[in-house]
Amino acid sequence: MSMEGYETVIGLEVHCELKTASKLFCGCRNAFGDAPNTNVCPVCLGLPGSLPVLNRHAVELAIRIGLALNCAVKPSNFHRKNYFYPDMPKDYQISQYDEPLNEGGSLELPDGTVIGITRAHMEEDTGKSTHLGSSGRIHGAENSLIDYNRSGVPLVEIVSEPDMRSGVQARAYAAELRAILMAVGATDGRLEEGSMRIDANVSVRKPGKPFGTRCEIKNLNSLRSLQRAIEYEAQRQVNLLEAGERIAQETRHWDEAAGRTGTMRSKEEAYDYRYFPEPDLVPLVPEEDWLAEIAASMPALPKQRRQNLLDLCGADDQATKDLVATVVDRDLDPLVIEATLAGAPAALALARAANELDATAGLPSGPSFARTVALEASGTLSATQAKAVLGVLATRPTDDPEAVAKELGFEQLSDDTLLTTIAAVLEANPEEWARYRDGDDKLAQFFIGKVMAATKGKANGKAVVAELVARRG
Ligand code: ADP
Ligand code: MG
Ligand code: ZN
Q: How confident is the model at residue 1 (pLDDT cuts 50, 70, 90)?
C-alpha cells in the first residue's frame, strides 16, 4: 500500500512539565523519581477544604513560553475540567479553557517553514498510574499502582494549528519546540521521563480537498515514536479510504513494540468535561510591568543562536549547519564563542565542540577549550593529540592543556625525527608513493596514517602533507 495521491495533515498538542521547585497550587516538591507518594499534601490530594494558591514562578515560565512562541499574552482564567480517573484525586483538573494565557503564535522550523500555534495554556498534571500485567494498560491489568507525586505539577499545553504535512516535519516541530522550551528554562526536556508528552492529531486528504476526519494518538514520549506513529496512522487511514471505508474520529494509543496504533475510545465515548470557572482562583491578569520585565529577560532562542554561530564561522554549507545544530542543541555554543573570541579558528572550535565534547562526561572550562583548539590550529598538537587532551579536560576542566599534553607524552616530534620517519614510510610503501607522485592525492591520508602509527600519534598531519608535497616536487 502507498500514500500516493494523499496528503497527511497533523496538529500536535504538547504537554510540557515546568521546571519549578514546587507544584502549581501547593508547596509540595516538584521532582521526578522521588519515592512514590512522598511529595503530597491536602491540596494536591484533593482533600475537602483545601484551597489552591497559584505558583508565581510557574506563571512566569508559561509567559516565557508564550513570548518565545510569538503568542499574545492575555488576561486569563482557570476552569475545572471534570472527569473521573483514579490518578486525579479531585475528580477535576484545573486547566484553562476559553481564556488561555497565550494565544495565536508561531514557530519557525530550521528549514524556514512556519507552523501556527493556536494556544499555550496552563494546567496541572495528574498523578501517575502504573498498570501491572502484560498489557501495561488498564485493560487486562492485574493491579494498578498510583503515585500522586506528579499530581499538581505545573504543565503548559502547547496546541499547534493543523499545519504539518509529514511525520518527519512533525518530528522537526517537536524537536524545535523542545529546544525552545529548554532555552527559556521552562523544562529539562527529558522526554523519557515524561517531562514532554505529545498527542498527535492525524488525518489524510487528497491535496486541495477539505481536511479529513482526524484521530488523536495519545502520549507519545519520544521523537522517534512520534514520527513512526504518525506514519503508521496516516497509512492506516489511507488504506481504509482506499477500501471504501470511513475514518471514525477516535482516540488511539501507540504500541511501540508492535509498531501500530489501536483504539482507546471512540468519539461516542468522548468525555463531556463540563468545564466551569474555578471558583477558588481569581482571574490571572499579569501586570504590564511584570510582562515587560519578563520580555526584557528573554534569552536568545535556538534559531538566533544557530545564526550567531553560522555568522561566526562565515559559512552556511550543510555540513557546517549540521555541526551548528548539534552544538546549539547541546548548549555548547558559549564554549565555541569563547574560544573564537580568544583567537581560535571558529570552524575548528565548532567541529571539536560538536564531535569531542560531551556534557555527561564533563566539559572543559572556556579558557582550556580555547587554548586546546588554538594549540591544534597552530600545529603544536595534532588532531589526535588535541582530542586526547580534550578527553582529559572532561574530568579536569581547568587544567592547562599544554601541561596535559606533556603528561600524555605528546612532546612535539623534532623535525629530524619526523623527516626520518616519513622517509622510512615512503621506502616501505613504494607502490603507494609512486601512485601519489602520479597525482593520486587520496594517498596522502594513507601516509599520514602510517606516520601517525610510527610516531604513536605525535606527528602533525599538516607537517606530513607539507613534506609529501615538497618531495613530490
Ligand atoms: P480538541 O479540543 O478536541 O482536542 P481542537 O480543535 O482543539 O480539538 O484540535 C486539537 C488539535 O487537533 C490541534 O492541534 C489541531 O491543529 C488538530 N487538528 C484539528 N483538526 C485536524 C485535522 N482535520 N487533522 C489533523 N489535525 C487536526
Ligand atoms: Mg485534544
Ligand atoms: Zn501538595
A: low
Q: Is residue 2 part of a domain?
A: no
112 plus 249 within the same structural domain: yes
Pocket flag, ligand 1, residue 217 (CB < 6 Å): no
Number of domains in the chain: 3
Q: Ligand 1 centroid to 4 CA: how many Å?
A: 24
**Cα gap 384→362, rounded to integer Å:** 19
For atom 7 of ligand 1, the residue with the nearest CA is 159
The CATH number for 429's domain is: 1.10.10
Rounded Cα distance, 245 and 238, in Å = 10
- Based on the fold, state whether residues 419 and 366 are members of the same structural domain: no
Segment 101-156, tens digit of pLDDT:
999 999 999 999 999 999 999 999 999 999 888 777 777 888 889 999 999 999 99
Is the distance from the beta carbon of residue 100 to the nearest atom of ligand 1 less than 6 Å?
Answer: no
What's the CA-to-centroid distance between 162 and ligand 1, angstroms? Answer: 6
Considering every ligand atom, which ligand is closest to the CA of 237? 1
26 and 175 fall within a common domain: yes
Do 133 and 232 fall within a single domain? Answer: yes
Query: Residue 76 Cα, ligand 3 centroid: separation in angstroms?
Result: 23
Domain boundary among 407, 423, 448: 407
Choosing from 96, 159, 220 the residue with most ligand 1 atoms within 8 A of its CB, the one to mutate for a pocket test is 159
| DSSP state string for 122-178 | EEE---EEEEESTT-SSTT-SEEEEEGGGTT-EEEEEEE-S-B-SHHHHHHHHHHHH
pLDDT tens for 363-394 read: 999 999 999 999 998 888 889 999 999 999 99
Please indicate whether residue 164, judged by its CB atom, sits closer than 6 Å to ligand 1: no
Q: Which of 407, 430, 450 is the last residue of a domain?
A: 407
Cell match 504518525: residue?
A: 230
Does a structural domain hold residue 1? no
335 and 206 in one domain? no
Looking at all shown ligands, the one closest to residue 212's CA atom is 1
Task: HSE, CB side, 13 Å, CA atoms: give it for residue 264.
Answer: 17
Domain that holds residue 426: 415-472
Same domain, 264 and 374: no
Atom of ligand 1 nearest to the CA of 201: 26
**269: DSSP letter:** G
Contacts (Cβ under 8 Å, ≥6 apart) of 275: 79, 80, 81, 82, 97
Query: Grid coordinates 512520534 are at which residue?
Result: 226
pLDDT class of 6 with cuts at 50, 70, 90: very high
- Ligand closest to 200 (CA) is 1
Atom of ligand 1 nearest to the CA of 159: 14
Digit-coded pLDDT (tens) for 159-183: 999 999 999 999 999 999 999 999 9
